[in-house]
């Protein structure tokens, strides 16, 4: 009975737990958490279809040519110079394939740039060597930030069972799910890059520049990413963890962090 | 403090449609200070601009600009 329950639970875990962090030997993308990432995955599937088509065709022609026109089988080479029909076909077909690839690609590209709705929240992600600072400044009434915290990687010796090596941080970025967010990415020293693959986000953090990205996280969960621009010796040890909570819980999560801040201020 | 926090922030400004929002932050900061110069330090009309620049600009930038304003070296059309 217990064995049966274990098997059922294991099966459920393996089938319904989404991939929001890098897995060992992973081949495909992480599961999408935003419409942008879903669009990227769908575009990948569209292109992959044509890719396989072209691959099979080219390999077939190549193998056929090598097999049938081996010098032992066919000693006299042909001297074909023209072939109008085939030349027209081999120009038209690739152009058509390029067009079929370009249409979904441009559709995604331009829709990613469109800012349709005003964001509900602005979060600033500031890269440092070698940690991140997050500022939530929508709520303060003076120039003092209401919520600023640093996010350091948890070193391997401090990890608990079940946590991911090189991916966990002490303070996660808490965001409300199903809400339009504006993330402003910048750096305080050298270039970094703020990347969260399951949200389809990778944005360079350049000192002196504020880069804006709009995301809408569609499901609750914890999403992992890593710094994606070489920034010094601990570049591999500055991960990013975004935790999307239900919108109604977001208020209390932020207040809980606000109260210690304003208590000190 | 436990009430629903109203989720509101600086709106998307069509003057700055691209990814680079550096000028957006700078412009909001300048707008706030021009507003206070025109309408007085404690005018509530200017509070809107204050919220916008605080939402967009990193704290360090705001602190640096405040210092520059105090020493008279702020490089902008206040």
Automatic annotation (TrEMBL), chain A:
Keyword Plastid in annotation: no
GO BP terms, alphabetized: ATP synthesis coupled electron transport
Range of residues in the leader sequence: 1-21
GO molecular function per UniProt: copper ion binding; cytochrome-c oxidase activity; oxidoreductase activity
Catalytic activity reported: 4 Fe(II)-[cytochrome c] + O2 + 8 H(+)(in) = 4 Fe(III)-[cytochrome c] + 2 H2O + 4 H(+)(out)
Keyword set, alphabetical order: Copper, Electron transport, Membrane, Metal-binding, Mitochondrion, Mitochondrion inner membrane, Respiratory chain, Signal, Translocase, Transmembrane, Transmembrane helix, Transport
PROSITE patterns assigned to the protein according to its UniProt record, in alphabetical order: COX2_CUA, COX2_TM
Entry GO terms, CC: catalytic complex; mitochondrial inner membrane; transmembrane transporter complex
Domain Cytochrome oxidase subunit II transmembrane region profile: 21-116
Cofactor(s) this protein cannot do without: Cu cation
Transmembrane regions: 47-67, 88-110
Record's subcellular location: Mitochondrion inner membrane; Mitochondrion membrane
Domain Cytochrome oxidase subunit II copper A binding positions: 118-256
Gene3D superfamilies per record: 1.10.287.90, Cupredoxins - blue copper proteins
Annotated membrane topology: Multi-pass membrane protein
Annotated cofactor note: Binds a copper A center.
Similarity comment text for this entry: Belongs to the cytochrome c oxidase subunit 2 family.
Function (record text): Component of the cytochrome c oxidase, the last enzyme in the mitochondrial electron transport chain which drives oxidative phosphorylation. The respiratory chain contains 3 multisubunit complexes succinate dehydrogenase (complex II, CII), ubiquinol-cytochrome c oxidoreductase (cytochrome b-c1 complex, complex III, CIII) and cytochrome c oxidase (complex IV, CIV), that cooperate to transfer electrons derived from NADH and succinate to molecular oxygen, creating an electrochemical gradient over the inner membrane that drives transmembrane transport and the ATP synthase.
Protein name: Cytochrome c oxidase subunit 2
Source organism (scientific name): Raphanus sativus
UniProtKB/TrEMBL annotation, chain B:
Chief localisation class: mitochondrion
Record's keyword annotation contains Acyltransferase: no
Location in or out of the cell: Mitochondrion
Cystine bridges: 25-57, 35-46
Keyword flag Disulfide bond: yes
InterPro entries hit by this protein: COX6B-like, CX6/COA6-like_sf, Cyt_c_oxidase_su6B
Keywords noted in UniProt: Disulfide bond, Mitochondrion
Gene Ontology cellular-component annotations: mitochondrion; respiratory chain complex IV
Similarity field: Belongs to the cytochrome c oxidase subunit 6B (TC 3.D.4.8) family.
Function: Component of the cytochrome c oxidase, the last enzyme in the mitochondrial electron transport chain which drives oxidative phosphorylation.
Protein name according to UniProt: Cytochrome c oxidase subunit
């Amino acid at each position: 009975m217990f064995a049966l329950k274990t098997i059922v639970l294991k099966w459920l875990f393996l089938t319904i737990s989404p991939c929001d962090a890098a897995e060992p030997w992973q081949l495909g993308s992480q599961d999408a958490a935003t419409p942008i990432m879903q669009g990227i995955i769908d575009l990948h599937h569209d292109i992959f279809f044509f890719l396989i088509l072209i691959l099979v065709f080219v390999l077939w022609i190549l193998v056929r040519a090598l097999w049938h026109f081996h010098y032992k089988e066919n000693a006299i080479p042909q001297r074909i110079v023209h072939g109008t029909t085939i030349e027209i076909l081999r120009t038209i077909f690739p152009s058509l394939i390029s067009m079929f690839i370009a249409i979904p690609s441009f559709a995604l590209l331009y829709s990613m740039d469109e800012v349709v709705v005003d964001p509900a929240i602005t979060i600033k992600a500031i890269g440092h060597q070698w940690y991140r600072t997050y500022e939530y400044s929508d709520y303060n009434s003076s120039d003092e930030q209401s919520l600023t915290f640093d996010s350091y990687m948890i070193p391997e010796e401090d990890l608990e069972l079940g946590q991911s090596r090189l991916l966990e941080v002490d303070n996660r970025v808490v965001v409300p799910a199903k809400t339009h967010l504006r993330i402003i990415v910048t750096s305080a020293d050298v270039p970094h890059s703020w990347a969260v693959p399951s949200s389809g986000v990778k944005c360079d953090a350049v000192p002196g520049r504020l880069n804006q990205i709009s995301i809408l996280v569609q499901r609750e969960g914890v999403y992992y990413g890593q710094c994606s621009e070489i920034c010094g010796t601990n570049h591999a040890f500055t991960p990013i963890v975004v935790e999307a909570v239900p919108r109604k819980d977001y208020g209390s999560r932020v207040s809980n962090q606000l109260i210690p801040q304003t208590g000190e201020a | 403090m436990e009430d629903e926090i109203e989720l509101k922030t600086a709106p998307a400004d069509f003057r700055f449609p691209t990814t680079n929002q550096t000028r957006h932050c700078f412009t909001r900061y300048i707008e706030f200070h021009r507003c206070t110069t025109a309408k007085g330090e404690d005018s509530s009309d200017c509070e809107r601009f204050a919220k916008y620049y605080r939402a967009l600009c990193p704290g360090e930038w705001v602190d640096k600009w405040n210092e520059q304003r105090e020493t008279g070296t702020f490089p902008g059309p206040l």
